Structure formats: C-alpha cells, structure tokens
DNA sequence: ATTAGGG
DNA sequence: CCCTAAT
C-alpha cells in the first residue's frame, strides 16, 4: 500500500541545473576539498587507543601509562529549527570539542632545563579554564591506574610550571581551525583491510553496540562545537612541527576473556590487549625566542604552550602499520594488524602530521608542501619574530614589563621535548586458540541516523540529487567522519523505503512524516530527472542497434 | 575513488 | 551495514 498521494501535497523547488557529468562536476568542485577535520586533535588517537586498551582491564595490573582524554562540557550551539541552506551540519558537527590531557614523563632537553615528572598538557580552546594543575574545569578523573604505574612515580602530578602566575595562562592555547585542506584524504577511505578481513561472522544486523567505552568515546566526540581561532602563539613557529615520527615497540600483552556485545549477536571473545611502548614522544623542534629578562617560568610556559599548540593546532596523529597509513579511525587495532600476535609489531609508526596543507612557515621549503617526511625543519626556514608588545601582553611579568622586547637581547632556545613515556609491562601469554578467535574483523558499529542527520541528508539530496553521494557527503556530512557516502546512499535507500511503508511497519526512531514526504518528493523528482537525461542522450551504439 | 544495487 | 561490479 503505497501512499504516493502525499507526494502531491508537497512541492519543492529543485535546481534547474540538474546534474552535470561527473567529469565536469569534478573540476567545478573546487571547494569540496575534504577537510582534515580530524579535530580528533592530535592525541585523540592515542587517547582512544589508551582508552580502548585500558577499558575492561580493571582487574588487570597491566596498565602502561595514563593517557586519557578529557571531555569538556562546552556549550553546544543549538541548531536552529530550520536548517540553513548550506552546510546544515556546520553547527553541530564542527570539530574538536574537547581537550586532552597527557600524563607522562617529561624531559625538556633545553639548555639548563631538565625536568621530569608528570606533565599535564591541556589544550583547550578559547581559554576556558587554566592550564595544568590549576584547572579543575570539568576534568574527568583518571581511573585508578594500578600499582605498576604508581610505583614508577608516574602518577605524581607534578606540574612543571610554576603556579605563581598561572592565571595569566588561561586562554592562550587555542587550536587553530584550519578548515579546508587542499588535498587530503577523506576519512571514509581505506577500507581495504577491512574488506579483506571482514567475514560473514557478522551476519545480520544487531542492535547492540560494541564495547561501551569505545562507543561512548565516539559519541562524545561526535558532538563538537565551533572554536574561535586565536593565534597567540604564532611567534612560536609550528613550521618545525610538520612531522616527527616515533617508533614504538609492541609488547605482548595480557589477554582476558570477556563477554561483550557485538553488532550482530552477543559473543564471547577473547579480548587481548596490546601494549604499546612509545619510547619518547618527541616534538620535532621548537624554537622559542625569548628575552633574557624573561622569567624561567615564562619560558617554561612558552615551551608548554608551544607543545600544546602544536598538538592541538591542526595536527593529528597519524598511524602507520608496516609502512601503510591507517586512515580509518574506526578500525580496531586488531583489524589494522596491531595485535600482540603480530610479528611485525616493530613496524608501527606514529607520526604527528599537519592536518593543514598550508606549508606553515616553510617559505624556504623548495618542495613547497608540507614535509611529511621531514623530521626537522631548520631554524633558517622560519622567520619567527617576536612582536614586543604582544609578548608583553602575554607575559606581564614584572621582570620585563618595563622594557620592550626589542631592546632586550634574546635567546634562541631550541627545545625538544619528550612528552610521554609508556612503561613496559611484563609480558603474558595466551593460548594459540585464543589467538585464532580474534582474527575475524569487526563490523562497523551501528549508528542509527538521527532525525537531524536525516534532515541534513534530505536537504542535501533535494539540492544535489541522488547519485551524487560524494557531493552530498561533502556538502552536509563533511565533519561526520563516520558517515561515508555509501552510508548516505544506503540511508537514502532505506528512507525511500520507509516513506513507502505504513508507519506501523517502521522501526527505530520515528522520522517525521514531513521529512518522509520530502524524501518521496525528491526521490520522485530525481528519478524522473535521471530518466530524462539517460533518454536524452542515447549512446551511439544504441542508436546503431535500433 | 565513486556509483549502483543486491545481500 | 557489507560486498561486488562497473565506472
């Protein structure tokens, strides 16, 4: 019983210029650049890894380090009832709505400085709260870490910064929002591995999600908020931060057998843990220019902020396994080949890569592009200059607030900071049998479309038509990394179906009838459109055949 | 990499 | 959601 009747009730203005050949569309889509909106800012991945690893391992004393992400309760801008014509998701899906904290050992290899202890990197947008121990703003408590870490003294929350003027600190660390990146790869990509690994073990759709911790992590970060850009630290060049690489050794971890609900059905899986030993998380090179009269404290802060900015400011952690970049953040470690059983564990690379294509300050870089393979950019490459007034504003310390920075001789301090150290753990072993069980790939988490998403999808399809899912994706789901164009296409398919069946047969979160009407409307329109274009331009062969 | 359609 | 085939 198809209710096409309601279609007439709604008319819709469709763009006159239907669709152009893909070849043509390609060029015109200059601004479609996929933005590396991995506002999963830098340490996000690590945090995720950590969380994943640490979750469900409470009884396990195998904790390696403490990396945890802190979710900040920033106000999320309300989406207007009526979505704007363009970018329906700009409001709700914008990136990076959190700050991250890394606790780890720190070594500053700068002249005269050596420091060890835990450091708290707190990169938070818009200066809410202050840095380091002073901040209490909605910080999640670190789950108890177990004796191993404690014994190593890693738990001491020694703030490396003097507290005397922490107040002046807040607000200086502001991730830059570099929206578009000329040619980056959409997150939707690389499914090759999964293709290979995916198996039929996941037949059927389940209603259950995967491990809770993992999921909630993602849910948290789907909801983001727009960040204001403020670049207080441009004088600390991030050009040097283009890339560094860090090699980590994996060690055999313990395995605990747990029962968890997977998409599909509940099943018992042996949940093995992987231990990553990241020997030193190295920031490429930081150049800090600072007056001699500046205080040690301010120097420390500068380094700290430089590091923080570096991590949050348009950089992201990249991961390479056996020389291949792993782009799909949704893949499990196991799927990716990061397994304690793997023999090539030594070929695991983390890298800090710029998410922006902009060559930062590398004006003298002949290659003209971001040097992903360049571990270091030299000081000569940058023209980092202090603007005295600016500095004074930043560091109103009494010691030099009287003089202008230009009068002061400055010291150029190259600093390489080791940020974290993950402590190794005594290896454990598991049976071969268990190893085998883990080999199967996982189906992606089920993520029902919200009404909001449906709205966005409908609107995009109304505008772009069916069959242009890539464009739809970039138009309305740019920042929704977990929605691939295939997903959108599939969703549209089901939407059309849903619209055709009776409300009683529908399941899940009910989609407003108004939206379904629009779906049918648009579907009808574009279907006809498609027919006409195919008939209007019969292929030469078909002509001959006739 | 995208698109289309079946499973 | 997944998988495949065809672009």
Automatic annotation (TrEMBL):
<keyword id="KW-0539">Nucleus</keyword>
<dbReference type="InterPro" id="IPR000626">
    <property type="entry name" value="Ubiquitin-like_dom"/>
</dbReference>
<dbReference type="InterPro" id="IPR009057">
    <property type="entry name" value="Homeodomain-like_sf"/>
</dbReference>
<dbReference type="GO" id="GO:0005634">
    <property type="term" value="C:nucleus"/>
</dbReference>
<dbReference type="Pfam" id="PF23603">
    <property type="entry name" value="Ubiquitin_TPR1"/>
</dbReference>
<keyword id="KW-0238">DNA-binding</keyword>
<dbReference type="InterPro" id="IPR031105">
    <property type="entry name" value="TRP_plant"/>
</dbReference>
<feature type="compositionally biased region" description="Low complexity">
    <location>
        <begin position="433"/>
        <end position="442"/>
    </location>
</feature>
<feature type="domain" description="Ubiquitin-like">
    <location>
        <begin position="274"/>
        <end position="343"/>
    </location>
</feature>
<dbReference type="GO" id="GO:0042162">
    <property type="term" value="F:telomeric DNA binding"/>
</dbReference>
<dbReference type="InterPro" id="IPR029071">
    <property type="entry name" value="Ubiquitin-like_domsf"/>
</dbReference>
<feature type="domain" description="Myb-like">
    <location>
        <begin position="441"/>
        <end position="496"/>
    </location>
</feature>
<dbReference type="InterPro" id="IPR017930">
    <property type="entry name" value="Myb_dom"/>
</dbReference>
<feature type="domain" description="HTH myb-type">
    <location>
        <begin position="441"/>
        <end position="500"/>
    </location>
</feature>
<dbReference type="InterPro" id="IPR001005">
    <property type="entry name" value="SANT/Myb"/>
</dbReference>
<dbReference type="Pfam" id="PF00249">
    <property type="entry name" value="Myb_DNA-binding"/>
</dbReference>
<protein>
    <submittedName>
        <fullName>Telomere repeat-binding protein 1 isoform X2</fullName>
    </submittedName>
</protein>
<dbReference type="InterPro" id="IPR057625">
    <property type="entry name" value="TPR1-6-like_ubiquitin"/>
</dbReference>
<feature type="region of interest" description="Disordered">
    <location>
        <begin position="421"/>
        <end position="448"/>
    </location>
</feature>
